[in-house]
Design a protein that fits this description.
This protein is an alpha/beta fold and about 140 residues long. It contains 5 helices and 6 strands, in the order E-E-H-E-H-E-H-E-H-E-H. Helix 3 links the parallel strand 4 and strand 5. The longest helix is centred in the C-terminal third of the chain and has 15 residues. Bound molecules: NADP nicotinamide-adenine-dinucleotide phosphate. NADP nicotinamide-adenine-dinucleotide phosphate binds next to helix 2.
Length: about 140
């Protein structure tokens, strides 16, 4: 952590580290999610991709959900490259279609016996970012 400027009130700090409260390294080294099934929507990039990657490193079976199959394939490859024995299931599903979501969840339960964690990261930040830019260009 470094202090960017002492003139700022309140002071502005730049963080290039991981806060202890959210640091996953111990969960990863302990394989704390071994035997757990984690569904991650929005897993093809961004927050969801990193969440899926981290849960897989912590031993979880991960279900990658997003609409773009080629991106899900790429994320699966990234996971298997680092965690060769990872259990990965992909579901190229539009999350606002309840019928397709139900089919996907049924597949998940058949394969893994249930769901322990849902990371709901599907979405878009576009309107939020535009609003930010308009408020503070
Ligand atoms: N990044 C930030 O700083 C931030 C801050 C606050 C909140 N958030 C929120 O956190 C969420 C994730 O952010 P992000 O930055 O990781 O976004 P991102 O990089 O744009 O990723 C969005 C993910 O959601 C998937 N997705 C979008 N619509 C979908 C749909 N209808 N059905 C299934 N999958 C869908 C996308 O894949 P496909 O396009 O292949 O479907 C992609 O995997 C967003 O809802 C965002 O608003 C982000």
């Amino acid at each position: 952590m470094s202090k960017e400027s002492s003139d700022e009130e309140p002071p502005v700090y730049l963080h290039h580290d991981v806060y202890p409260a959210v640091d996953p390294s111990q969960l990863i080294s302990n394989h704390a999610f071994q035997g757990k099934c984690v569904i991650v929507t929005g897993a093809s990039r961004g927050i969801g991709e990193d969440a899926a990657f981290t849960f897989a490193r912590a031993g979880a079976s991960v279900v990658l959900v997003a609409r773009t199959k080629s991106q899900l394939d790429a994320v699966e490859s990234r996971i298997l490259e680092h965690v060769p024995n990872a259990q990965v299931l992909k579901a190229a599903v539009e999350v606002i279609d309840p019928a397709k979501v139900e089919v996907a969840v049924t597949r998940v339960v058949e394969r893994f016996g249930g769901v322990d964690v849902l990371v709901a990261a599907a979405g878009t930040a576009r309107s939020m970012i535009v609003a930010f830019l308009q408020a503070d260009p």
